[in-house]
Amino acid sequence: MANQYDRKYAERCFYWGQEPSPFCLKALELLPPERPLRLIDIGCGEGRNAVFFARNGLDVTAFDLSPQGVAKTRELADEAGVPLRVFQADMLEYRLTEKFDIVFCHGCLQYIPPRLRSTILGNYKAFTSDGGLNVLSVFVKKPFIEKAPDAEATAHPWISGELFTHYHDWRLEFCTEVIFDDTSGGVPHKHAMDQMIARKV
Ligand SMILES: C[S@@+](CC[C@H](N)C(=O)[O-])C[C@H]1O[C@@H](n2cnc3c(N)ncnc32)[C@H](O)[C@@H]1O
User: Fold this and answer.
1) Which residues contact 157 (CB under 8 A, 6 or more apart)?
2) Contact 23 CB / ligand 1 (< 6 Å)
3) Mutation pick for ligand 1 pocket among 5, 44, 109, 112 (CB with most ligand atoms within 8 Å)
4) What is the pLDDT along the chain (201 residues), one digit of tens a residue?
């Protein structure tokens, strides 16, 4: 299934840049790579975060719906000279079948419709090692923020705070809600995003 990022990722430049999200550093602060760690990056885009983790010595697996994103991720990893497994998959269908120390998903959970959220997050929780982290962020609805002019048809923004409720039985190491400006699509607008790092104890 094609998505709106295929065309953007087909360009030479990196749509999201090559610098990792600051969210990655927070994850490593909470689980430093002092021993071999396995991480999966779900919806890895063009690989900026997956490659950052691989550069820091983690054993990284990554996937995205966009074949162009997968190719860019491979290219970025090759340029950095780091090993990384990356493949094309749909997070609505793909389920983890082996354990990871860190399940990382930045800015993609909004593609999961409400009926699949418990199942998919339940799978991520079950396949996280003891003491491991789920590092997740998702776009949320706020009554005072208008729908983005370039809102994606495949996205289903979550209720503010909803993400945290799925982790009521884990230790919430970090959770916040940020509101930020965006000019994608050429029209200035705002987004709200919930960010959470939860530890399996
Ligand atoms: C906002 S971007 C975030 C990319 C990356 N996580 C980052 O921080 O740079 C959302 C990503 O989700 C991917 N995506 C959309 N629907 C998906 C699906 N059903 N399964 C897997 N990835 C999906 C898009 O191709 C896109 O790369």
Assistant:
1) 110, 138, 139, 140, 141
2) no
3) 5
4) 567 899 999 999 999 999 999 999 999 999 999 999 999 999 999 999 999 999 999 999 999 999 999 999 999 999 999 999 999 999 999 999 999 999 999 999 999 999 999 999 999 999 999 999 999 999 999 999 998 888 888 899 999 999 999 999 999 999 999 999 998 778 899 999 999 999 999
